Amino acid sequence: MAQELLLGIDLGTSGTKTVLFDTKGKAITSKTVEYPMYQPQNGWAEQDASDWWNAVAQGISAVLQKSGADPSAIRGVGLSGQMHGLVMLDKAGEVLRRAIIWCDQRTSAEVAQINRVIGERRVIEITANPAMTGFTAAKILWVQNNEPEVYAKCAHILLPKDYIRYKLTGEFATEVSDAAGMQLMDVPARDWSGEVLTKLSIDRAMLGKMYESQDLTGKVHAAAAKETGLAVGTPVAGGAGDNPAAAVGAGIVRAGRAFTTIGSSAVVYAVSDQVTIDLGGRVHTLCASVPGKWTVMSCTQGAGLSLQWLRNTCCAPETERAAAENKDPYYIMDKLAADVPIGAGRLLYLPYLMGERSPHPDPDCRGVFFGLSAIHGRPELIRAVLEGVAYSQRECVDVFREMGVVIEDMLACGGGARSAIWRQMLADLYGCPVSLTEADEGPALGVALLAGVGAGVYASVEQACDAAVRKGSAQPPDMEAHAKYEPYFALYKKLYRDLKADFETLAKIE
Length: 510
Known about the structure:
Layout (H helix, E strand, L loop, with lengths): L4 E7 L3 E8 L4 E8 L11 E2 L1 H19 L6 E8 L5 E3 L9 E2 L7 H11 L1 H8 L8 H11 L1 H6 L2 E3 L1 H10 L3 E3 H4 L5 E2 L4 E2 L1 H6 L9 E3 L4 E4 L2 H7 L6 E3 L2 E2 H8 L7 E6 L3 E7 L11 E4 L6 E4 L6 H11 L1 H10 L3 H10 L9 E3 L17 E3 L7 H25 L6 E5 L6 H11 L3 E4 L4 H13 L6 H8 L2 E5 L3 H30 L2
Parallel strand pairs: 1-5, 5-15, 9-12, 16-22, 22-23
Antiparallel strand pairs: 1-2, 2-3, 4-7, 6-8, 10-11, 13-14, 16-17, 17-19, 18-19, 20-21, 23-24
């Protein structure tokens, strides 16, 4: 009998990672295909949906070819993706415009519109979150208001990973964890909100059918099979947004457990058995990928993105050295930062390159180096960026603790978790151990396990995680370092408050 396999596809901002797993959670082979992000104006962020599909098709073909696996041995396909994006299709299923993605900040006027027509308090009561520029609802209204000719042709509204589902199966569907980030759901009820859709003039027929994350939503059709190499009829599960998927991949499926992930954005994510809402809108409440559970999560928009920006703009020597030594540039940058003391030579960095969501829902704030001096070089800049992102995560964890969300166990995942110095910063600032999982596949593993539940390989999401997720080494906090960080952290928090009005002024300058 052929080995049973599961396929996980994680549609990220910089690229799509496709991973083939066995049913014990072991990655057999993987392939990542990158693509660009477009910024036609300051604060805008778009991607081409055809780039996503090409990356998926190439990725599936590559892992099948490399592994030599029999496509018929794949019990199910799971889809993960960047959340909050807007994909618009016409009646023929053709894309109408570039997708407006999660970090786009153009929709301040539409957020005001949502608050006006629904009411600020009522928005939170229904969707469990305040109206936000990053969420999909405001993007839909922006197209209504600014591109009415495009909106008039729109027949289907999909999230990024759900576009891949459509390309694989022909089905227009979504699932609760990703859809909860659209601001169109009654999050406590785990379904679309008729009240929100009516007041925003959005036809419910445009939206996909709602599923739980583990449910099977369709099967691979002949055209997709020909393009990818998958077997016709392979089941495709609901999947999850990238962060809920990463939670499953890290085994965060029970209350008391949390993770910090550092990718392009950074997220702290905890599971709760009930709906817990921060009325200040500093963190988000969404549906978990586990039936009957919810999540509290924060999102720093410009986390790994900040380090990538610094690498691309300032670190050509490190990039050249890395190429010569056949190493990752971030490895070289880490080494430089490790030689710089806590505080980066009295240099602070605010990671607001794309505005911010948590704990400051503010589309106007922008990145800041504070304390820059002629004594500072690239090592101090790198250290300051690492510390600034870590300060942002600590500020969010403090909000969780204010809300009574228990965090007994913190895992680190995402590309940034590979950095030992970054993990140690998090442990020191949180004041608790930070662990790794043995696998580094995160969202791809999470949705592969969800597909396994849907296909009957596992009895439940919890059982799937118990069978396939293994915890790795832990880094304990250095409490002396914790004490050294505290005055810098206090100043870091104060800087946003001091600059808030100035950010608004800057945004209004023509």
